[in-house]
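Researcher: Quick sanity check before group meeting.
Model: Go ahead. Protein one:
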Amino acid sequence: RYHYRVGRVQIVLVDVEDDPNGFASPLPYPLVQVRAVAPHGADEFGNYESWLRVVLTHELAHVVHLDQARGVLALGRRVFGRAPFLFLNGATPTWMIEGLATFEETEGTAFGRGRNPDSRMVLRMAALEDDFPMEDRPVLGLDRWPGGQASYLFGEAFLRDVSRRFGPQAVPEMTQVHAGRPIPYLDDLTARSVTGKSFHTLWREWRQTARESALAEAQTLRERGLTPLRLLTTRGTRQTGPRFSPDGAWLAYTSKTLTRFREIRLVRPEGSEDHRLVLRNGGNSLAWTPDGRSLVYDEPESFRLFRVRSDLRLVEVESRRVRRLTRGLRARDPDVSPDGRSVVFVRQMAEKSELALIGLDGSGQRDLTRSEPGVQWSHPRFAPRGDRIAASRLEPGGRLDLVLVDTASGEVTPLTEDRAKDVEPVFTPDGAHLVFRSDRDGVSNLYALRLSDRALFHLTNVLGGAFLPDVSPDGRSLAFASYSSRGYDLATTRLDLDQAAPVEPFADPYPAPRPAVAPVTAESRPYRAFPTALPRFWSPYFDSASDEVRLGILTAGADPLFR
């Protein structure tokens, strides 16, 4: 579709961080780096049939987009090689670069962020609350929500609107036209030559369309009756992961803003006495010990040389003293057993994750599950009696379902079986129901699953979304993170299972997963840096500093591992 052939691409697979990501660069040659670790259930990626398929589709789209050179720029590469000043598509706005890759990520897979209801949530609430950005804002990770996500989500939705209005070839044609302009930052001329309108006009028209669509969707939700909420915080950004203390007197949660270090805070259920307990490097999950004296949580930390691993820590509420439970174990999403003796958590590996158990003193670690490659676990929670664990499991192909795991044997019992995103389960105090988050109606809402007969019931109907629920010890209240255009804030609402409405069968809106790629059999060879590190370009060089003038030729090279 882009009528451009990229030659050899260097792909580097690394396993040094527990944060899923990747990057692509056309310089000094087409290069893609992918972190082996996959997202888990609460991540903004939503469902995916394969993490490597999603991330490679995204990053290889970057390569095709940014590598292009046509006309005089293509001639310049014949003379100077792969000189940085000859890659003009890299000078387009970030929402064009990341939006295009996210668009292709969605087109090339069964899911992608363009189909994720939580991505649409960000656009819908921005439109409803008059915070929908013009094209100047989603460029860098500014000090306003949604920060760096804006270029991906708003960029993808804008380019999808352009493709809908002007045909599927409009977006590829824009990249081709721009790749032939020797002067950067003439994006509006590129848009006019393809669509007859400037990007500013196209964005303004799309903004109006998005607002009308959001108003219509909001009207439908209001007709069903919105759930009354009580907001406990108003900071926005990410106030998430509330957990009731065993006596119900406190809620512990994680607070992240764009101007302050992430921290664990305590607040009363009515919103008073909100204060910081301890700083944390990352993560959202935490769990009380049954005596209410401590919290177990996960956070990433430097481990050995060049690695970042997620591990478990315990903080004493009264003294605020912190001690490690694990070291280099790649542990996240902890929950403490009802008897206070053990912790269940997710142990990340390069090709999958497992549920594991460890003593509260940090001893006796063992894996509870035995999963196939590609399986990802998230948010395990003990049953009130401690004999079972509810969790969310993503399987290859994109099924993200709730399961029960026997604490003694590790036997897995499926509870939901569809392609809705069913995540973040928590037992009611009597153990009869699971409360969880799902996007099965197009909005992330909270549901209840009755374990006796697997019946599903609506618990919330919100304009934004409801995330990371917890049930009060008396079973009368729900705490969760509620979404608005400011981000996520803590909210509570009344829990009345007797009044909950039954759920309609899930209507699957996603296309079929792409066929699996056949494994390649090839001979492994040792890594050699020198062939790729040879210089790929030359450029005239002039520099004047103080009384010194330097004139010469500049060149450079780098191997794929930057050694």
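Researcher: Fine. The other one?
Model: Protein two, sequence then structure:
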Amino acid sequence: MTTVPRRWLPVVTLALLALAATVTTLGHDFTYDDRDIIFINDRVQSRAHLPHLFIETYWPAKYGGDGYRPIVMSLFTLQWVAANGAPWIFHLVNILLAVATTLAVYWCAAAVLPTLGAWVAAALFAVHPVHVEVTGNVVGQSELIVALCLALAVGLYLRRRKTHELTGRDVAAISALFGLGLFTKEHAIVLPGLLVAAEATVLPGDEWRSRVRTMRPLLLALTAVALAYLYVRGLVQQDLVGFLEYPMFRFLRMSAIDRIGTMMNEMPRIAQLILFPTRLSADYSPNDVLVANGPALSQIPGLFICFGTVLLAFALRTRAPVVSFGLLWLIVAFLPVSNLLMPAGFVTAERTLFFPSIGAVLMAGALTEHVRLHASVSRRRVATAGLAVLLVAGLARSIGRQRVWKNNDTFFVALMHDAPNGYRAHFLHAKHVGLKGRLSEMASEYRRAIRIFPFDAGMTLSVADAYTRAGLCAPAVALFELTFGVEPETGEGRYEYVWCLARLGRWTDVRREALDGLRLVPPSDVRLMRAAVVEANKALGKGSR
């Protein structure tokens, strides 16, 4: 009678750890991106619109029309309809997905580690504080689903390859998980790379020709799924990447060398967030981020981390295959979001470390097994005590951090505390307090954000628009001019700029800017710009008589 409880004890304890780390979110509101993607987005608030989600971008057009994630958008619709828009059901789904993902990590780890090592890996994953941005924010469901699908896919692959050849049913199951992940969020594309990493490290040592023959049906199926995904996505978005570059990359016209240099400056922080996340933030931006301007000594630690990780992964391939696999998992999973291959819509983002962190906990599980097998009794006791402290500290930090995502009031206050030197923290806080009617505080925070980093044309345009709506044309004009200096070919805000110039009586400038803006503004504004030219001519004509 006792064998069944013992067998299920690891699963139960892991589920309880994941539940404890996330359950406090059940009473939380829609926070930050949740509000734009779900709360004020009528596209996800009706079952009748469900089919259209597969031919629409993730972000609404007014926010740039970025991304293609129809599965998670469909899930948002079903949750909205089920609870009439109440946020508790979205957070409940997040909690259930967090528990399921933790168990999937355990199942995957148990394919390459004994029970204790697999349990330690999944337990550390369950309480990892850097995961809070995913589990506490409703839009993190996409990260959770991808991690769940890919952990199951890799776990299935490892188990089947260790026992016998892959069957057609295995190929179909792994391909289905791959497709579900891709249509949920684009970074699921890394699955084939993870399978190759497994072949290179933890799977039996067949010669490569034999491995290729074994993998061929699955790789062909995964290629077909990826091509189908890219084709459908291409019908919705012409841009393969599908996201606007981060303002720093876009508006500073950063070269690839400078972008990579900036990420080398960030690598020590990224390593710290994965291994020991004492400081967390929902945003990382200048001046909190050190922007590179060519090679510099500050980039050496990041280069050392990157090259050291790659070299260590290959050096340990035979001596410590699970550690090598964990390192390769980190590399493969993080590379698409690292800004090293192509610019992304962020510099550093904690949500992007959720899936790569599985590689780190796999290494921790392997280290646990090494200590269990080779350390003395006293050292094992010390290691057990250290692990207990780490789990308790991680759980406490995760529970405390979840409070940051309770609602926008707590979130933006915390953001200012976490990133006082980041321009976006001040910009986002200003927008929030402006909605609350605290206009003097809004203006102060806007000014501070612009002083820190005046090269985000999207931000300065947004602030100029806010001033225009408030009838404050003098500061609005200054910001419009700053915006167009950074982004001279944009048509956004051109008519508002001309309107403010007219309010200030600067008719010569009105005529010049209206004529220049005719080639840039959208068709809906052309008539307004022509009318502005006519009004300017009348005003200048009166002034000349």
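Researcher: One line on it for the slide.
Model: The first helix runs from residue 3 to 22.
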